[in-house]
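Example 466, ligand D-malate.
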Amino acid sequence: MMSLHAEPAGLMADLRTVLGHAAVLEGAEMPARNSLDWSNLDPVPPLAVVRPADTAGVAAVMRLCTAYGVAVVPQGGLTGLCGGARPVAGGIALSLERMSGIEEIDPASSTMTARAGTPLQTLQEAADAAGLYLALDLGARGSATIGGNLSTNAGGNRVIRYGMARDMVLGLEVVLMDGTVVTNLNKMLKNNAGYDLKQLFVGSEGTLGVITRVVLRLYPKPRCTMAAVCGLADYDSVLRLLESARRDLGPMLSAFEVMWPDYWGFISALPQVRPPIGEGHAVYVLVEAQGTDEALDQPRFQSWLENQAEAGVLADAAVAQSLADVGAFWSVRDAVTEFNRVIGPHEPFDIGLPVAAIGNYVKACRSALENALPGAVALFYGHIGDGNLHVAACLPGAEPQPKERIKEIVYGLVRQFGGTVSAEHGIGLSKKPWLPFTRSAPEIALMRRIKSALDPDGLLNPGKVV
Ligand code: MLT
Ligand code: ZN
């Protein structure tokens, strides 16, 4: 690692000269929140929190840090769950929070151009006000920023219909570690002119470049939303329900969330949750559809459900009668934010598995955890239509939590079932040791070649992902 100057004090002075004093925070001025994301790792205070106001400022930070040999960790809304935005000791935290705002909404192209530090919810509301729809949605929408969403290739609740963050981006502006600004704010759906460079940065968790501006694909605003919560007798019925939902609801199908009884029991006990159906089922499904004409689509949804009940796929179901009901149904699923309060410190997982294998995985995982750690609690739920299972596991009362043992069991079975250690949250720091369970040695070697081509000194978000 080359360093032109010996001490970071020179770096701080140079950063202040270029960005202004208010953009460089050190020591007690640094907000505590910049020392960690939403992962359960230990916080690491950075050398400084640096908050440029524009792309030129980001480029200047990158050039100076390269010259001084100081690491840079990009930060958005800090809602990541794997430590990808946790600072590294002796490195700066590059916060994009001042780079917020929408530059343009283009109805003809159906796109929105925005700065990376804009919160996801702000973008959703702006699209809505323009009569359009930004389909990316997740629980942390109020704090998460679009730059972070794209750099982690966020998934969320409506992937089954619209895809992941990667499917919603048409253009990007990125700053490389050497300060090069690569701008391609493409608005066209089709552009096959050479490598699709933007996809290199989407999902690379800030290890290859810093996203500064984005062009997002918008959709027509759904005119009606239908939802039901169903109780089913077994996982085979879940597969039958999913197949028929895909077939009979077609492109209207916008979410297919599944919850197992332990999850349902814990969540139903929360005072703010009113479970739409009773306990006693083997599996619970929240299914949502978005339509274009309520008069046609609502009865279609209703009759699809009735057919499923008649065919014996459903044991019980509650159908939303209003948008307020739809919101109440989602609150059963969104209550995952209460886990820390309900089950205490736990290990969260976002594994991916072939959809058909998930029922058996849950059984195998639950019994392996119970055998190895008697008294362990494991809550299973997730975006099962996407093959994405969440597990929240802990040993109540244990201090410290047997985290490594829990991970060995969960990821060991993932490998056995041919799944992935991360379906949507990314690798960051906490899942790095488990990457080889999912990616082959040549794949990891290729990732490292790409990393060293773009960041030869290893200064950009070092130690993350690969
Ligand atoms: C979710 O689906 O609610 C989020 O990915 C967070 C999680 O449950 O881990
Ligand atoms: Zn999720």
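Summary: Confidence is low (pLDDT under 50) at residues 1-5.
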